[in-house]
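Throughout our pipeline, every protein is held as a single compact record rather than as scattered files. Such a record has a labelled line for the sequence and another for the backbone structure tokens. This encoding replaces a full spatial description with a residue-level series of whole-number codes. For reference, a complete record is included directly beneath this paragraph.
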Amino acid sequence: MKCKICKSENTRFINANISKCLKCGTLFKNKTVDYDKEYKDYWFDLNDKKFDWYVKDQENWFNYFKDDIKKGTVMEIGGANGLIINQVNDSKIILQELEDIRPNELRNMRIKFMKGKIENVLSNIKSNSIDTFIMCNVIEHLNDVPKLLNRLYSKLKDKGRILISTDDGDNPMGGLMAQLNHTEHTVTLTKNAFNILCKDKFKITKYWNVSDYLIYTVLEKE
């Protein structure tokens, strides 16, 4: 079983569904995750007051992102209801892949809405045109993280940034629990895994543990 990040074959099974890379430390699902099928049960109707905690959570994440967003064009990938990117003052784009998320939920927000498979939408984005990409709790859902980061690299302007929040793979218990409790989480990354992903493309300008189980990192195009 090859690691989904560094492609090493030096891995071991944790259980029937999860493996760990002994080179970069990534935890990953042994099969390709059907994102639509696995994730749709987690989607929230944000008009329902019982999900006010989620709205507050998104607002809190913006407090981490805001100082690292470069002035210009900002694109959020997997932006749910636009609760983060709506707080950005510059030109903003939201890319949403799930079929059950409706553009009219972004009404009253001056956001360009792009819907479809990530790879298809990115094909319509000009090279060297984006200043900042935001991925808030998104990267752990992807089946091919290296491929996406390569695509984002080509779309970023010089010194452009990718702002990422995700599970903390360096926390032994937290990383494993993220994989066990979330069937839609494909990978849980360590800092070493990020270093491998960034080689010859990005430098890591910030890497914070924001809780026992989550990290926030900034990747800047070199």
